[in-house]
Structures are given as structure tokens and as C-alpha cells.
């Protein structure tokens, strides 16, 4: 289940709003630059933070493998549709392997795609840390504390809680279909499993719509939104470490923009 997992690690103790601000700032910093030195630093930082979060591999293995497959497909697609893009970016061409036509392998193309890999390593662990170490209720109360409407905060909290609910519903529907004799487990072929997954989507959508109707009705009966302010059962105060983390995130984004200025563009070019 990809959702909040209670724990007592350093990242669990950090305020939810602090983690969101850091996630946004660092993601923007990583997405706007192709400086390999900077991306190596943020990749190591994200993996290190993931390690100290004490998140078990079994909790994220499926998601990580799923993301890895699509990342590899994306890298292959980049090469297939534009195999000489790296040579254009770095204004250089160092051929490693002579292919056919425009499909030859160059150091510049490999370097560009290596930067793409670093971008994945820089951002994906941060997203997983945020999802798995942030209590939705505590996060919503923190957002409300900095001036965001509690209606918006509650919507964000429901969205975060909804991820594991969707997963539970998916597995329930899958188990029900297998109990009726429709094999979509690991024993079945890949094509049959894909078709089985597609048949789950429709009842999943219907159950999601039904759940949304139940939640909205319950909120209306409790007069949600009738007052301008509300109290929170779960609330965490900002501490010194939260301000330091946000300041560090701002510095990281500042370094990213500074490197863009020094490199006279988004790309660090070691071939010039």
C-alpha cells in the first residue's frame, strides 16, 4: 500500500508542510537544470534521506519497479525518436558505435540520457518520502496554520488518504475476480494479466464515485464549511529544524538557478 506508514524516523518528525515546500523547491531545482554535478548531489541527497526515513523496501518495491519500467521505456523512446539530440545540445559528436543511418551511439547522447536518469533519482525518492512519512491530518492542519483555507487543506488530506484506499479496492476486486475463476495472478501470462487489469478499471471507477458520494454527503450532514475556521485533532507546530530545512531547500533552488546563469543555459557541457 502506497500511503502513510507510521514511524519515528527523522523524516516522520518533520512537519508535513516543510516536507511539501522542500519537495516542490527541490523538484523545481532538479527539473530546470541539466547540470550533472548538481544532479549527482541531489541524487545522493534523496537516496540518503530515503535511507534515514527507515522505509522498508517491501513497502515501495512494486511502485519503484513500476516507475523503473516506464523510466527505461522513456529513455529508449528518447533515443529512438531523437538519437542525435545529445550532439545538438552539446555541439559535439563523439561516436562510440557506428549504427545504421542516424542510429549511431554517441557519448553526448549517453551523457544526456544519464542526466535524465539522475533527474529520476533526484525526485522520485523525495516523492515517496513525502507520501509515506506524512500524516494526512497533520499535513492538512499545518497547511491551514500558514493561511490556506481549511477547505483546501481538507481536500488535500482526502486526496492523500485516497491513494491507499484505491489500492485496497483494486486488490479486493482482483481477488473477487480470481475467486470466480478468472486467473490474473502471477501464474497467468503477461497479456492476460494486462487484460485482467483493464477489466478492473471500470468497477474501480464506479466504486470510487460511490465513495465520493458517501463522503460528500457525510460532510454536508456535519455542516462542513459552515464556519470560516475550524479546529484540528492532529496538529504539529513548526520547529527550528523545519525552518532550517526550508532554508536549505531555498538555497538548493538558488544554486540551480545560479548554475544556469554560469553555464549560460540549462546544460552543463563537458565536451566544450
Automatic annotation (TrEMBL):
CDD domains tied to this protein: EcfT (cd16914)
Its membrane topology: Multi-pass membrane protein
Keywords: Membrane, Transmembrane, Transmembrane helix
Main location: membrane
Any one Pfam family match given in the protein's UniProt record, by short name: CbiQ
Residues passing through the membrane, by range: 20-50, 62-82, 110-132, 243-262
Subcellular location: Membrane
GO cellular component: plasma membrane
Keyword Transmembrane helix: yes
Name the UniProt record assigns to this protein: Energy-coupling factor transporter transmembrane protein EcfT
Organism: Vagococcus hydrophili
